[in-house]
Specification:
CATH architecture of the largest domain: 3-Layer(aba) Sandwich
Distance between the termini: 38 Å
Shape: elongated
Strand order of the largest sheet: 6-7-8-3-9-10
Helix content: 25-40%
Number of strands: 14
CATH topology of the largest domain: Rossmann fold
Order of helices and strands: EEEHEEHEHHHEHEHEEHEHEEHEH
Largest sheet: 6 strands, mixed
CATH superfamily of the largest domain: P-loop containing nucleotide triphosphate hydrolases
Low-confidence stretches: 318-342
Number of helices: 11
Structural class: alpha/beta
Number of domains: 2
CATH class of the largest domain: Alpha Beta
């Protein structure tokens, strides 16, 4: 009987402190080979700190981590040879052309001039950047720069790719292009660890999802398994005016089967209901009696948004807005990729 293959990424009990702040508090992760592990969490949950440890850019204070079969503490060079890393902030040199960026990275991976030229041209073709190959990257769109950054992370054909919020700040087209690249990577057998705040991104791409908050895992499973934790349907109502939110919450408390979740920014309230359409009718009657004007009302099955809100008590950031937040430890952005294996 053949023994099961070890996971491509595994961590056990990772702890990392920055002064009095504990960024990771016993984090356990497991990414199987050839799959996408989605790591969800709000800002400050520990996502980027975990990425930096896995990429050998930080040392954990406690716990163990292995990537592609190598221990990140005792075999950092082997880990770096096995991974590609693309962070929230592109590491593309904007003054170099697309070709020059990729050729430079290939040379840093000890490829000959001829092999580096060939690899750069292949990647430009694969990432649909051939026509822009000889233009400075500063003239690229956000989506093009992201594709170039991902191409650079793949120069050495890594078996594991770590993407730390790769679509931050991209427009919808750029995000869809990045999703396509991730799907192609997995189709070629690459393991991907994807950290994100965008729930539809995890829903679309991840085979397994881990939700972390305050540096620890609070839930894990497939998208459908996480949604099934909540069960039933959700009644979702958007108030027309902020002053009506208290009355809206009061109305929903009378028809729901749990606590009413409120997002004051969007004037939205939602609650789990067991009776579906009957709860909807009852809520509309209550709102009418209280003279609460609403912009939208409806029923839907639980989504990852509902799971995230229930587990963390917070909504994620607006997926259409660029993030300007600091990393988990309050420092500047993550380097785009680990140095290649030297």
């Amino acid at each position: 009987m053949t023994a099961a293959s070890p996971p491509a990424i595994s961590t056990e009990g990772l702890v990392k402190n920055f002064g009095p702040h504990r960024a990771l508090d016993g984090l356990d992760l497991r990414a199987e080979r050839g799959q996408v592990l989605g790591v969800l969490g709000p800002n400050g949950a520990g996502k980027t700190t975990a990425v930096r440890i896995l990429a050998t850019l930080l040392r954990a204070d406690a716990g163990e981590a292995r990537v592609a079969g190598h221990d990140v503490r005792s075999e950092p060079h082997a880990v770096r040879r096995s991974i590609g890393l693309s962070g929230q902030y592109s590491a593309v040199d904007h003054n170099l052309t697309g070709y020059e960026n990729l050729h430079m990275v290939a040379r840093l991976h000890d490829m000959s001039h001829a092999r580096a030229r060939e690899r750069a041209r292949d990647l430009l073709e694969h990432f649909r950047l051939r026509e822009a190959a000889d233009r400075p990257a500063k003239g690229y769109s956000g989506g093009m720069r992201r594709r170039l950054d991902l191409a650079a992370a793949l120069v050495s054909r890594p078996s594991v790719v770590i993407l730390d919020e790769p679509t931050t700040g991209l427009d919808p087209r750029g995000r869809m292009e990045t999703w396509q690249v991730v799907s192609e990577l997995v189709g070629d057998g690459t393991t991907v660890l994807l950290t994100t705040q965008y729930l539809e991104e995890a829903d679309a791409l991840a085979d397994d999802i881990v939700v972390i908050d305050h540096g620890r895992v609070i839930a894990e499973g497939s998208s459908e398994e996480l949604k099934s934790l909540l069960g039933g349907e959700r009644l979702d109502v958007v108030a027309a005016r902020a002053r009506d939110l208290p009355a809206l919450v009061s109305a929903l408390e009378g028809v729901g089967s749990g606590e009413v979740a409120v997002d004051e920014r969007s004037l939205r309230a939602r609650v789990a209901v067991e009776t579906g359409s009957r709860a909807l009718i009852a809520a509309v009657r209550r709102l009418d009696a209280l003279e609460v004007e609403v912009q939208d009302v409806g029923l839907h099955r639980p989504t990852l948004d509902d799971v995230f809100l229930t587990l963390t008590g917070r909504v994620t950031e607006d997926s259409g807005r660029a993030e300007e937040s600091a990393d988990d430890d309050g420092t500047a952005g993550t380097p785009s990729r680990a140095a290649g294996g030297r």
